[in-house]
Amino acid sequence: MKIRLIACLSFATFLIAQTAGTGFDIRLDTALGGSGFNNDDNAAGIHLITNRSDNNERIDLDGDGLFEVIVLSKNAADDIHVYEATADNSYSFVWGFDINSDTASLIPQGVAVGDSDGDGLLEIVHVNGNSDAVNVFEMAAGQIVDGMNPSYTPSFSTAVTDPTAVQIGDLDGDGRFELLISSRSETAGFVIFETTGDDTYAAAVSTAVGDVDNMNDDGGAASLSVVADLDGDTTMEIVLAPDREARINDAFYVFSWDGATFTEESQLAIATTASLTGINNVLVYDIDGAGSPEIVLTESVTDRLYIYESTAANTYAADAGTAGVITPGVNIFAFSVGDRDADGFLELYLPVDDDTGTSAYVTYFEHDGTVGGFGAGNFGSAQFLVTDIGSGVGSNDPRAVTYAQGSLDGDSFGDVAVTTQNGELIILESNTGMSGLPVDLLMFTVD
User: Fold this and answer.
1) Nearest C-alpha neighbor of 165 from the set 148, 146, 183
2) Does pTM top 0.70 for this prediction?
3) Which of 45, 49, 136, 182 registers the highest number of CB atoms within 10 A of its CB?
């Protein structure tokens, strides 16, 4: 068992002189002991999580009422890091695991938390794109203990070619969860393992994603959304964004699965002058509060954000056309949605790269609540979550941001986490009252 010094870290621990935006305070700023993820690492959207994948509630691995943040880094003593709130405005490292034995070529890709097998014990599900591995680390009853609970021995482990991201959901609506995995594979870009019992899963089923011609690596997927009924037809769907290395103009693919057969319900393209090699993040949220989710994508080559709505069964349209809704800065990556002031109007939070050699930052834009309104005029001017993250191209650019479903540390203020390219975790807290997202805004189920 590893022996380490675990220190309680508070907002007074700083690496670089970050500056919180108006309405936020920094509560944690800590190094992860390695490096973060650059623009060649897919699935950036789930390098950092504060919410469960199966129900989008806050993560509480051991059920003690203290919530956790899980973040990935690479080339560190640990590559999976779990931080837990220990008191108001205070967080401690509580569990870590070294996926790659410090081999630089092995890069952690994605992580999710949920109870996939329905036994009441939460799991950390991790996919590693370079070692073709899927591992499930399941909690036992009791407190989190580094090196012991969850055990370093996976409760389930299997191989998947080039996995990039993972979610937990019930795509076929049979009451049993599946491990839903995106992959760079040319012929198996979407892979499903359905639970069959405690710590047991059916054999993998898979389907191709994108243009499969065995040339130029133009198939495969970089990330995938949570499960939702996207078009109101009572069939659950999932959205996959194409591999960022793919030389195609497709924006996303919508799939359903009935337990036996995959159906590609929709394939959307954006007519731009450049191939969309940068789309690597997709989320589904009810941004306008109308009761049905939109598909939201970021694209890090032309630096745009796109929002799509369903117009009929299996049919979707871009609300702001091919120009995108927001062009917030350079190389936007993993994004999130929050409600910092609990006013019912949601904000889009976007990390912005630093190609200018000045200061990287996380910015946000608040929606005005207009039902079906997703033009640039429906979002307020850019505000800042955190600035002065670092200077110099690629030195410490933000790579992911995630808004917790509510307070992580048990007070009445919502929390949001950011991770950076050099392997840094920043947790900020809203100082304008309870914020975050109610569960019914995040999960869409069939009644």
Assistant:
1) 183
2) yes
3) 182
Q: What is the C-alpha to C-alpha distance for residues 406 and 412, in angstroms, rounded to an integer?
A: 8
Taking the C-alpha atoms of residue 84 and residue 68, their distance in angstroms, rounded to an integer, is 4
Residue with tokens 């190609």: 355
Q: Is the peptide bond before 150 cis (omega within 30 degrees of 0)?
A: yes
> Mean pLDDT of all residues in the chain?
80
* DSSP string for residues in 358-371: S--EEEEEEB---T
Contact partners, residue 259, CB within 8 Å, separation at least 6: 172, 174, 194
Q: Helix, strand or coil for residue 312?
A: strand
Question: How many CA atoms does the CB half-sphere of 196 hold within 13 Å?
Answer: 9
321-357 residue pLDDT tens:
555 677 666 667 778 898 888 888 999 998 876 555 4
CA distance 301 to 241: 14
Other CB atoms closer than 10 Å to residue 140's CB: what's the count?
Answer: 13
Structure tokens, 347: 């904000």
Of 8, 15, 94, nearest to 418 by C-alpha is 15
> Across the strands, what pairs with 180?
167, 192
- Dist. CA 22–CA 14, nearest whole Å: 19
**All residues at 6 or more sequence positions from 40 whose CB lies less than 8 Å from its CB, including other chains:** none
- Are 333 and 399 in contact by the 8 Å Cβ rule? The answer is yes
Distances in Å between the Cα of 110 and the Cα atoms of 87, 124, 309 are 28, 10, 27
For 269-303, give the DSSP string: E---SS--TTEEEEEEE-TTSSSSPEEEEEETTTT
Closest CA to 163 of 194, 135, 127, 187: 127
Chain centroid to Cα 109, Å, comes to 11
Instruction: Give the CA distances from residue 82 to residues 47, 240, 310, 420, in Å, rounded to whole numbers and listed in that order.
Output: 12, 27, 37, 16
Q: Which of 27, 31, 36, 26 is nearest to 15 (CA)?
A: 31
* 3-class secondary-structure state, position 425: strand
**Three-state secondary structure call for residue 323:** helix
Beta carbons of 348 and 364 less than 8 angstroms apart: yes
For 86, phi and psi rounded to 5 degrees? -110, -20
Tell me the C-alpha distance between 427 and 27, whole Å. 6
User: Which residue shows structure tokens 């369903």?
Assistant: 310
Cα gap 424→395, rounded to integer Å: 11
223-277 tens-digit pLDDT = 899 999 999 999 999 999 887 655 455 678 999 999 999 999 998 766 444 455 5
